[in-house]
Amino acid sequence: MDEFFLDLRERAREWFDGLNFTRTQQLGLGLVALLVCVGSFALVSRGTSEPVPIPVPVILPPPEVTVDVAGGVKRPGVYAIPAQSRVIDAIKAAGGAKSGADTSDINLARVVKDGEQIYVTPALTNVSQPNVIAPRAVSGPININRATLAQFDSLPGIGPVIAARIVEYRKVNGSFAAIEDLQKISGIGSAKFAGLKAKVRV
Fold first, then answer.
1. Is 39 in contact with 49 (CB distance < 8 Å)?
2. Contact in structure between 113 and 104 (CB atoms under 8 Å)
């Protein structure tokens, strides 16, 4: 092994001496080579690695929807809740249903829509009081987002079957956006809707 390095050094010296450079040029070339070696050694020993910054993930808030919770809840009002929330989540945001409130006509597992109203039927009060005259029934248009099965049944041309379809549609799809949406119910065509549109509202 020593002979190999001695032979390699001898060949390098012969090559260096054989260059058509003057003695000054050879010395300059040797100095440049020495500086390159020293500089390379300095770079390797010092190291050029720098700490790599770790990116901080930006956590965006989840999207929200705004719903109006009304009726038999403890804190009726407008609430912003996470998107893809269920009707039961909106009711909980409003403090939950009041004692005796009827949620049987609401699909509690339905995903809420932005801008909709969720109406919980309040508990019926049937307290008899002497010498109190019962108020007259409201004869104006009924709210199709709050009307009961019996109220739909009382509309002209509806009957119990179509009334049940309206309640079921509202339970599955949520509140009606306009009275014209009643025409999405099987059995309510344009002619039948024309006869009852003056008796309903949203």
1. no
2. no
End-to-end CA distance of the chain: 100
Top pLDDT among 49 and 169 is at 169
Rounded CA gap, 49 and 3, in Å?
Answer: 39
DSSP string, 74-135: SS-EEEEEETT-BHHHHHHHTT-BPTT-B-TTS-TTSBP-TT-EEEEBPPPP----TT-PPP
CB 92 within 8 A of CB 73: no
Give the number of C-alpha atoms closer than 13 A to the C-alpha of residue 193, restricted to the C-beta side.
16
User: Could you tell me the two tokens for 186?
Assistant: 């099987």
CA atoms within 13 A on the CB side of 163: 15
Write out pLDDT tens, residues 167-188.
888 888 888 888 899 899 988 8
Residue 163, φ and ψ in degrees, nearest 5: -60, -40
**CB neighbour list of residue 17: distance below 8 Å, 6 or more residues apart:** 26
Q: Which long-range contacts (CB under 8 A, 24 or more apart) does 78-83 make?
A: 81/112, 83/114
Q: What pLDDT score does 132 carry? A: 44
Instruction: Find the helix or strand (DSSP H, E) in which 177 lies.
Output: none
Return the ∠ at Cα 117 (arms to 113 and 119), rounded to 5°: 125
